[in-house]
Amino acid sequence: MTDKFDVAIIGGGVVGCAIARALSRFQLDVVVLERDVDVARGTSGKNSGVAHTGINVPTGSLKAKLNVHGAAMFESLCRELDVPYKQVGKLIVALDESQVPDLESMQARGLANGVPVLDIIDADEIKRLEPNITGYAAVHAPTAAITCPYSLTIALAESAAENGVEVMLESPVTAISGEPGDFTLTTPKGAINAALIINSAGLASGEVARMAGVERWRIFPCRGEYVILDKSVGDMITRMVYPVPPKGGAGLGIHITPTVDGNILLGPSTDYIEDPEDVDTTVDVRKQLLKEASEFLPTINPRDVITAYSGVRPKLTSASEGGFGDFVIEEVPERPGIMHLVGIESPGLTAAPAIAEMVAGWVTDKLSPAVRPDFKEGAHTAKRFREQSREVQTSLVDNDPDYGRVICRCELVTRREILSAIENRLGARSINSIKYRSRSMMGRCQGGFCGPRIVDLLIEEGVPFDELNLKGDGSWMFFDTSKGLREGHDSRTGEAVIER
Amino acid sequence: MSETTTIVCVVCPVSCAVQVEFEGNGIIRTDHNQCKLALEYVNDELFDPRRTLTTSLAVDGGAKPLVSVKTDHGIPKHRVMEAMQSLSGLHVQAPVHIGDVIVPNLIGTGADLVATRNVAAA
Amino acid sequence: MIKMRSADVAVIGGGPAGMAAAAAAKEAGAGSVILIERDEELGGVLNQCIHDGFGTKVFKEALTGPEYAAIYADKVRDAEVETRLEATVLELTEDRVLTVLSEEGMETIEAGAVVLAMGCRERPRGAIGIPGSRPAGVYTAGAVQNYMNLRNLAVGRRVVILGSGDIGLIMARRLTLEGAEVACVAEILPYPSGLARNVVQCLEDFNIPLFLNTTVAEIHGAKRVEGVTLASVSGMDVIPGTERFVPCDTLMLSVGLIPENELSRQANVSIDRVTAGPVVDDAFQTSNPGVFACGNVLQVHDIVDYATMEAEIAGRSAAAYVADGTLPEAEIQIKVGDGLRYVLPSHVSGLDAVNFTMRVTKPDQNRAIVFSSGGKVLRRLKQQALSPASMARVRLGKARFSDTREILVEVGD
Ligand SMILES: Cc1cc2nc3c(=O)[nH]c(=O)nc-3n(C[C@H](O)[C@H](O)[C@H](O)COP(=O)(O)OP(=O)(O)OC[C@H]3O[C@@H](n4cnc5c(N)ncnc54)[C@H](O)[C@@H]3O)c2cc1C
Ligand SMILES: Cc1cc2nc3c(=O)[nH]c(=O)nc-3n(C[C@H](O)[C@H](O)[C@H](O)COP(=O)(O)OP(=O)(O)OC[C@H]3O[C@@H](n4cnc5c(N)ncnc54)[C@H](O)[C@@H]3O)c2cc1C
Ligand code: SF4
């Protein structure tokens, strides 16, 4: 198979998907090539989910510009795509007087970067805003917001697909050849032909650049682990609570972040690692997170941890160098036609809409496409039942009985939402794809109850049980039927046992 | 000469640690059992260990893919796996009712395999 | 449109506890009793417990789970309880208004009394924090049981079990019978957390090793589980150098059950920190009058018969509450003494005999459960063996409650 596209985007993270959606407003043939079984499986699915205001980035940097601009675009983008967005505000808390100068310099930098409002508040005001938090003083950033990073990435990809973008999953790019106007990208699913290439491969962007003969970037993976606390303690805080960032550290320090679903995140840690795909979680860090977060929030109880996860930052500076690395968004003169996005670490999620606008501008300058007249802006997926008022819920069920069957009880997800997730536009059918689209299996029982019911629906929708997988090839869910284990054949179909 | 031993009664979750005094092939007395169901079990466990086999069978044309079944008496413990093997490949036609005998005299043990659940026809 | 209706007694959850409570409420004279179950059939967890051992107390016979459930489903039908299947209670207010969602729409039910019988859920991987990667092949034992016994799906071929809870032990046997290989059971405590009965007939019968003081230190495999690292522990910490790799394609967790009390909290019912279930009196009334609790939502039971017995009292109490508008005060306080994790109920009226249920903190032998009041022993029940895995049940006759305000229960000599 050889397909000819105007633009090939490598990487289905929030950046690649935001670019794809921005380009789908034009009459262009665009393909997104993602190596994983679904979009948002990289860093974009595993972060704090914060739309940052722009306090923590050096004035004048590309990061600062795109952060502040992205933050300003964020709310309307989320509303368009029906993605959760809550402007809960943020406190950066000084534990004693010695940290007050840090607060002042952060405030000054933030205002210089264009953050609309930033106040410094005292201990009493901290108590008034967040009764469970103890601190000496704090920067209060009321415009800081939280979102659901994988929902946003998925919604961007599905909206792009709705508007004609082809999203190819399980399609890693392994080689790049050719010239601007006629590049060839090699994937296991065949060669892809494209006039322009966008390298938004996140942690692998350095490697993808090397495929195109550009050797200049080395990425240092730096892991951040989190634990998630149960919703029942979700009301311990209403705002994000950050420490004063550790000097010369690789991150913002361990913070306490409410999620749009009512849980609380503790994290992330900062550990430079060898393998960018090593998203393990560890006992030591789990203990460290609980300990450090307890300094601000003493009511944290280890019993309330429901699960843990980690994400990896694509750093352009090594552990020993420390310090700051700006976003790289560059077309290299000696190898034109390819836009490289390298080192898109925090606040890459926040900046994604602005990055997309910038990169789409590069494409339209080169190709001068016409605007797509029938661009469909909104989402086309089922309503998130749990977020609706009783009245809206009632009318949803009255019109569609599938909203009346609760499949996931912890997160209150209905059959309609699961079916909508199964029928997604990208054709992603892994169990995790259903999980991230519907939020089922993410609650306090982690799928113990709803897992079997979702498996039923997938089988009803035509996925054979022996093809069911958690996250793509090799991550099979069922070895055989119960009866088939002993009988040596599948008792449903009478066929021979599947060889694994 | 009588002997004494302790056998955990497995008939129900109480798991009484039953003390048994026995001689030859007869029990003289038992202690620490909460109920009489232990007597038959302990006797069997000493002289002829038996287990109730519970498992499931595939159902054809049913509203459910499986029907659960049990042996109506204990079968010799060492023949449990053999019994499972003998059921391999067996399919039951729906409808099935609790108590229906699915396999009489399972592998010659004298115990019948009976359904423990109702499965309606699809 | 939200439909509105009322009922004398509403029972939430159609497992063995809910079925027994509903039938008992109706038999005790409640006019309208509604039983709400979110699954497509009654029976709760019993439907997937196809092993035998249910009913030895009530029926003097070892029935299988589905058989035991069927008996109570018949009782519910014969008592003319209104049963709503595939209906989920979304909300319960303090003044006993239920919001129920089903394919027929949204409905509110104003209930004269409510019986909570929602059962419990399994503790998942995250809650116990096993480090390592997150491949496919990590399942809770209850999920494996559900797939295997109800859906004809086998999750793997070579299984390591973490935790010696009863469901895990039962599934060790079940998997072995069906032709899978159970490599071992690892338990972090120095004693099994499941019943002796299940250690004998599920592990020993099949020569499946049980490693005590052992945990899973790491899960291996990127896509599907490829093995686990087992390690010995001292207390809860891994002893360095004891790590060993065990290949397997499945890790099954049997690390405990947690009562399902989200609705109880909404209804402002006080929850006990130890049982994680509601605080109740001897009528099984919670801190919110007119709201009752029984079965696994109250405390994790190992014997369904006892869940049934307490549910029948809860159902009768609910009917009495509707008839009389109130129940006798339960002013005698029950204090938990040495050697016990909890005792239920926590306060009693003294008007009737009470069957107390409790769990001990650690295994022990030749001790006694002692009830006393102001230093005077009310009852001493010799126990040859005590185990945290088995719930102890001790009856105290009505006469013992005269002239007491407080009773201490402890493990003594
Ligand atoms: C711990 C942590 C916390 C963070 N918190 C925040 C925050 O709160 N707010 C914020 O704004 N930002 C935050 N960030 C930053 C943000 O998550 C990232 O900047 C953003 O997700 C980067 O998106 P991306 O699309 O560039 O990369 P990714 O999401 O990594 O996407 C890259 C994609 O490319 C695919 N790919 C790689 N190689 C190939 C190939 N050869 N062929 C095809 N596909 C390929 C990958 O599978 C992946 O899906 C955080 C990051 C971390 C690690
Ligand atoms: C693996 C295993 C093995 C066991 N083995 C034995 C044994 O051998 N012998 C023995 O005597 N006992 C045994 N038991 C114990 C016995 O099964 C339990 O004590 C008993 O099932 C508890 O009953 P329940 O009604 O409280 O809970 P459940 O059976 O869990 O029922 C609760 C019901 O409530 C419903 N529900 C919950 N929330 C809602 C809502 N919001 N709206 C509507 N419906 C709702 C659920 O769907 C469920 O059907 C075993 C238990 C397990 C798990
Ligand atoms: S003796 Fe009775 S109570 Fe004790 S375990 Fe056996 S059957 Fe159960």
Provide keyphrases for this structure.
heterotrimer, A: 500 residues, alpha+beta, FAD/NAD(P)-binding domain, D-Amino Acid Oxidase, Chain A, domain 2, 3 domains, eight-stranded mixed beta sheet, 30% helix, disordered C terminus, C: alpha/beta, Immunoglobulin-like, seven-stranded mixed beta sheet, 36% strand
Describe the sheet with the most strands of chain C: 7 strands, mixed
Low-confidence stretches of chain C: none
Per CATH, the class of the largest domain in chain C reads Alpha Beta
Fourth CATH level, the homologous superfamily of the largest domain in chain B: CPE0013-like
Task: Classify the secondary structure makeup of chain C into a structural class.
Answer: alpha/beta
Estimated structural class of chain B: alpha+beta
**How many DSSP E strands of chain B?**
10
Rg from Cα of chain B: 18 Å
Helix amount of chain B: 10-25%
Brief sketch in words of this structure:
The complex is a heterotrimer of chains A (500), B (122) and C (413). Chain A has 500 residues and is an alpha+beta fold.
Task: Describe the protein's topology.
The complex is a heterotrimer of chains A (500), B (122) and C (413).
Chain A: E1 2-10, H1 14-23, E2 30-33, E3 50-51, H2 62-81, E4 85-86, E5 90-94, H3 100-113, E6 119-122, H4 123-129, E7 137-141, E8 145-147, H5 149-162, E9 166-168, E10 175-179, E11 182-187, E12 190-199, H6 205-211, E13 220-229, E14 240-243, E15 255-258, E16 264-267, E17 271-272, H7 283-296, E18 305-315, E19 328-331, E20 338-342, H8 348-367, H9 390-399, E21 406-408, E22 413-414, H10 415-422, H11 431-438, H12 450-460, H13 482-487
Parallel strand pairs in A: 1-2, 1-12, 2-9, 5-14, 12-20
Antiparallel strand pairs in A: 3-8, 4-8, 5-7, 6-7, 10-11, 11-12, 13-16, 13-17, 13-18, 15-16, 19-20, 21-22
Helix pairs in contact in A: 1-5, 1-8, 2-8, 10-11
Chain B: E1 3-8, E2 17-23, E3 26-31, H1 37-47, E4 50-51, E5 54-60, E6 66-71, E7 75-76, H2 80-87, E8 91-93, E9 101-103, E10 113-115
Parallel strand pairs in B: 5-8
Antiparallel strand pairs in B: 1-2, 2-3, 4-7, 5-6, 6-10, 9-10
Chain C: E1 3-12, H1 16-27, E2 33-36, E3 52-54, E4 63-64, H2 65-78, E5 82-84, E6 88-92, E7 97-102, E8 105-116, E9 120-122, H3 125-128, E10 138-140, H4 141-150, E11 158-162, H5 166-177, E12 181-186, H6 196-203, E13 210-211, E14 214-220, E15 227-234, E16 237-238, E17 244-247, E18 250-253, E19 257-259, H7 262-266, E20 291-293, H8 304-324, E21 332-336, E22 340-344, E23 347-348, E24 354-360, E25 364-373, E26 376-386, E27 392-396, E28 406-412
Parallel strand pairs in C: 1-2, 1-8, 2-5, 8-20, 10-18, 11-12, 11-18, 12-13, 21-28
Antiparallel strand pairs in C: 3-4, 6-7, 7-8, 9-19, 14-15, 15-16, 15-17, 21-23, 22-24, 24-27, 25-26, 25-28
Helix pairs in contact in C: 1-2, 1-8, 4-5, 5-6
The complex binds flavin-adenine dinucleotide (FAD) (2 copies) and iron/sulfur cluster.
